[in-house]
UniProtKB/TrEMBL annotation:
Annotated ranges, domain Penicillin-binding protein dimerisation: 65-242
Annotated protein name in UniProt: Penicillin-binding protein 2
Penicillin-binding protein transpeptidase domain sequence ranges: 277-613
Highest taxon above the source species: Bacteria
Protein localization: Cell membrane; Membrane
Membrane topology: Single-pass membrane protein
Length: 664
């Protein structure tokens, strides 16, 4: 049995332990109160402004307002591309619980196809939740009225009016002005490294970005700066009021004025009709491009809202290739239009213009026989240009050589890419011995190792065939420099951006003897009066005459002795060229016209150039004065249709020859 133990407790010791506990607990409570007070003071005093802003942000939102896109005008102030009112219906997904149910309700008022339903759902998934998605755009007034009547009863559905890009001349400016379309992922990727990019604007359903032409090249200038509409929202984000005083107005995009003339551009499209080709016209003194068409064109309005795959396939598969800019991206052998530069290169290198050669229709050289379209007999250089004799220029080119011809052709703009503000130019080819050595290096199957310039390649170059390829803009620059005679004129397409002149430059002196240029110009004048273009290029404008040069360029290899192509399939026919300037005695305008697979340059391209040049001359007050002998100031308010003109006399087409020339 255990012995009992005695425990003695000190009252003072127990009291001390209680006091220490009270002190510890009291300290903890005091520290907590101090920390809480400090935190409250920090939130209300130090960070009060920050949380006040966050609170206001929950109460107020800014809804982005897209800026009006800048307008594009022609040189006379005619609106080419602008904005028009458009009715639309949108869904704000952050206010919708069930997307499918909401779309079903809308479909009772505005029927949807399966494809449109899929498109809407795809756009909703791709957009940010705060960004509204367009259900239907560019509605008629009747459809818009129906939706507006029921929109307030369908949560998240908004019917309003927006602006849509409009192209008022349809396909006349489709390539040079281009078009806008919806922003895609590639556009967003391209904008990542761009400075000052507003990605909220890029994601907005109303925003359209420039895809081609001027619309693309000057997109940053045209798009403007977005604004914001201040609205009051409830806890669900639904708009309950609008604060007009807190809203920020958008800044419209800059207007762009082009050097193009809408009347001349439209006339060129009318003249081409269904033919495929291009026309470029320049002022030879300023370099301003008055006309730059590619035919057939396409309606850029189709791309603004999104073109259907079937419609795009029709454009893409059409053999006339309406999506290709034939003025800049299409390159073709220049044919006999190149003979003017061959002749000038010969003169610049000491060639005697009185040198004669006899044309019997053929020119045997090496193991090949080169042909001409006619038996021209004995000709000097002037006569060879006027009659476009191939046999003469085969021998002329051989006497000069490819390097000297190429050097002069480059001085006159061939093989060059010009800074006109838009992309898409192809340099083409101006061949010489160095080019062939570099190109035919055996690196590709279509570039076999054949670095040596063969003697038989020079005659073909002399008539604008062989490797030589140019585009319509380059050929226009070349004839502009010939017509100017003293300055290396450069093309200029954009006149001003936002009211400020765009890239005005001084032209360098043209490195060619003016007397030699005058010789070639005189021969070109005779081409129209008595040569290959006689009866096809007469202007019928009194004393105003045009000078030019025809060209028929092979586009398809044909067997010797069977050289006619007009009876062949369209894509195997020859290309038709005509380059010209007017007035012949005091040049002001120059142009190049190519009719793709058009056959003869004289009968296909020259008549088109004639009609387009007439339009430019009749609009010029000084030329009007020469034509009708009155003060142009008296005609300011007089319509062009009231100006008396002689009757047209285009002349009759000559009978088809037995054989088609290599180049005429």
């Amino acid at each position: 049995m255990a012995e009992p133990s005695l425990v003695f407790t000190d009252v003072n010791e127990r009291q001390g332990m209680f006091t220490r506990r009270i002190f510890l607990m009291g300290g903890l409570v005091a520290f907590g109160m101090f920390a809480l007070t400090g935190r409250l003071a920090h939130l209300q005093i130090v960070q009060g402004g920050k949380y006040k802003k966050l609170s206001a942000a929950n109460q107020y939102n800014f809804r982005l307002i897209t800026p009006p896109r800048g307008n594009i005008y022609d040189r006379n102030g005619k609106l080419i591309a602008g904005n028009r009112p458009s009715f639309r219906v949108m869904i704000e997904t952050n206010e919708v619980k069930n997307i499918d149910d909401t779309l079903d309700q809308v479909s009772y008022v505005l029927p949807q196809t399966l494809a449109s339903r899929r498109r809407i759902l795809r756009d909703i998934n791709q957009n940010q939740r705060s960004v509204p998605t367009i259900i239907a755009g560019d509605l008629s007034w009747e459809d818009f009225s129906k939706v507006s009547l029921y929109a307030n009863d369908i949560p998240g559905v908004v019917a309003d009016m927006d602006e849509m890009r409009a192209y008022y001349y349809g396909g006349a400016f489709s390539h040079v002005v281009g078009y806008v379309s919806k922003v895609n992922q590639k556009d967003l990727d391209n904008e990542k490294n761009a400075s000052e990019t507003d990605f909220n604007l890029l994601h907005h359903p109303s925003f359209r970005i420039g895809k081609t032409g001027i619309e693309r090249a000057f997109d940053k200038d045209l798009r403007g700066v977005a604004g914001g509409k201040k609205v009051e929202v409830d806890a669900r984000g639904k708009v309950v009021a609008q604060d007009d005083e807190g809203s920020i107005e958008p800044v419209p995009g800059k207007d762009i004025v082009l050097t193009l003339d809408a009347d001349i551009q439209q006339r060129a499209i009318e003249v081409f009709g269904q033919d495929s080709g291009s026309c470029v016209m320049m002022d030879i003194h300023t370099g301003e491009v008055l006309c730059m068409t590619s035919s057939p064109g396409f309606d850029p309005n189709l791309f603004v809202s999104g073109i259907s795959s079937d419609a795009y396939k029709l454009l893409h598969d059409y053999d006339r290739v309406p999506l290709l800019d034939k003025a800049l991206s299409g390159t073709y052998p220049p044919g006999s239009t190149f003979k003017t530069l061959v002749a000038l290169a010969a003169l610049e290198n000491g060639y005697d213009p009185k040198t004669t050669h006899t044309c019997n229709g053929v020119f045997p050289f090496g193991n090949h026989v080169f042909h001409c379209d006619s038996h021209h007999g004995t000709l000097d250089l002037h006569g060879a240009i006027v009659t476009s004799c191939d046999v003469y220029f085969y021998q002329c080119a051989l006497s000069v050589g490819p390097d000297k011809i190429a050097a002069l052709a480059r001085k006159f703009g061939l093989g060059q890419i010009f800074d006109i503000g838009i992309e898409g130019q192809k340099a083409g080819v101006v061949p010489d011995t160095a080019w062939k050595r570099a190109y035919f290096d055996g690196s590709k199957p279509w570039r076999p190792k054949d670095p040596k310039w063969q003697p038989g390649e020079t005659p073909s170059m002399g008539i604008g065939q062989g490797f030589t390829n140019v585009n319509a803009l380059q050929n226009c620059v070349a004839v502009s420099r010939l017509a100017n005679g003293r300055k290396a004129v450069l093309p200029r397409l954009v006149k001003s951006v936002g009211g400020k002149p765009y890239k005005e430059t001084e032209f360098e002196d043209l490195a060619a003897d003016p007397n030699h240029i005058a010789f070639v110009r005189a021969a070109m004048a005779d081409v129209v009066t008595s040569g290959t273009a006689a009866g096809f290029a007469k202007l019928d404008l009194g004393p105003i005459m045009m000078a030019g040069k025809t060209g028929t360029a092979q586009s398809h290899t044909i067997k010797s002795g069977s050289r006619a192509t007009l009876h062949l399939e369209w894509e195997k026919r020859d290309h038709a060229w005509f380059v010209a300037f007017a007035p012949a005695d005091a040049p002001k305008y120059a142009m190049s016209v190519i009719v793709q697979h058009g056959g003869w340059g004289s009968s296909s391209a020259a008549p088109k150039a004639r009609e387009i040049m007439r339009m430019a001359l009749l609009k010029d007050p000084e030329i009007q004065k020469r034509i009708i002998g009155v003060n142009p100031a008296d005609l300011v308010d007089k319509p062009l249709s009231d100006v008396p003109l002689p009757e047209d006399d285009a002349g009759a087409a000559p009978p088809p020859p037995d054989t088609l020339p290599t180049s005429t």
